[in-house]
Amino acid sequence: VHGHAGRLIFGTLNGKPCVCMQGRFHLYEGYPIWKVTFPIRIFKLLGVQTVILTNAAGGLNQDYKVGDVMLIKDHLNLPGFAGNNPLVGPNEERFGVRFPCMSDAYDRDLLKAAQVVGAELGYSDFMKEGVYCVLGGPSFETIAECRMLNRLGADAVGMSTVHEVIVARHCGLRVLGLSLITNKAVMDYESEERANHEEVLQTGKQRAEQLEKLVSTLVARVELNNNYCGFGD
Ligand SMILES: O=P(O)(O)O[C@@H]1C[C@H](O)[C@@H](CO)O1
Ligand SMILES: Nc1nc2[nH]cnc2c(=O)[nH]1
């Protein structure tokens, strides 16, 4: 999609071997859901243990400001309610079980680690924790939809990530999710604000340096055996 480079980059980040997707596939681009999540299984086969998934999202929580970084503690998979789940079809036993648990989708130790690193970097003022809701896109939400999603418990809304999380958890990868609140979801009929992709890209650029620092510092502290340095046990 415009704004995503569409490259896969291999290298080391703070001494840790990493592979980085510079962009992703989205359902709204017309890709089948298995293709949207295909890179995650490639990562598993490459030996990846931990994935850090990032996205741009609209803020539904009234306490959120544009530029906030929300650590994802849970998700609402609305396409999943209608049967649009990446694990639909014959189960690939070599990756995982037929009915994977999702109540532990977002790794609590990694989330804690992200909070600690964020505080150390002085980012606490713009770091939040909340529930991410995925929709199919590409149209942004109506006012009624935003109000409904907020009442359902969503703090942020976007068009990605959740499908990747489901496939990652299915094959046993540990997941940290970060949403950059790039715009405030319009919840008020009097509002003159309009969601638009340019604002999404602009907010992304404004926070890029801090997000890079957050992720690279975190990566440096995650041990390859999935233990963490400096976060208690
Ligand atoms: O790939 P993400 O979820 O970060 O991208 C979001 C959703 C749409 O692709 C785009 C909307 O502006 O940003
Ligand atoms: N669905 C959705 N995706 C987004 N990505 C960035 N902002 C938004 C938004 O407001 N809604």
UniProtKB/TrEMBL annotation:
GO terms for biological process: purine ribonucleoside salvage. InterPro entries: Nucleoside_phosphorylase_d (IPR000845), Nucleoside_phosphorylase_sf (IPR035994), Pur_Nuc_Pase_Ino/Guo-sp (IPR011270), Purine_phosphorylase (IPR011268). One of its GO terms (molecular function) is purine-nucleoside phosphorylase activity. It catalyses: inosine + phosphate = alpha-D-ribose 1-phosphate + hypoxanthine; guanosine + phosphate = alpha-D-ribose 1-phosphate + guanine; 2'-deoxyguanosine + phosphate = 2-deoxy-alpha-D-ribose 1-phosphate + guanine; 2'-deoxyinosine + phosphate = 2-deoxy-alpha-D-ribose 1-phosphate + hypoxanthine. Pathway: Purine metabolism; purine nucleoside salvage. Its EC number is 2.4.2.1. Residues 3-219 form the Nucleoside phosphorylase domain. Coiled coil: none annotated. Keywords: Glycosyltransferase, Purine salvage, Transferase. GO terms for cellular component: cytoplasm. The keyword Glycosyltransferase applies. Belongs to the PNP/MTAP phosphorylase family. Catalyzes the phosphorolytic breakdown of the N-glycosidic bond in the beta-(deoxy)ribonucleoside molecules, with the formation of the corresponding free purine bases and pentose-1-phosphate. Preferentially acts on 6-oxopurine nucleosides including inosine and guanosine. This is Purine nucleoside phosphorylase. It comes from Lepisosteus oculatus.
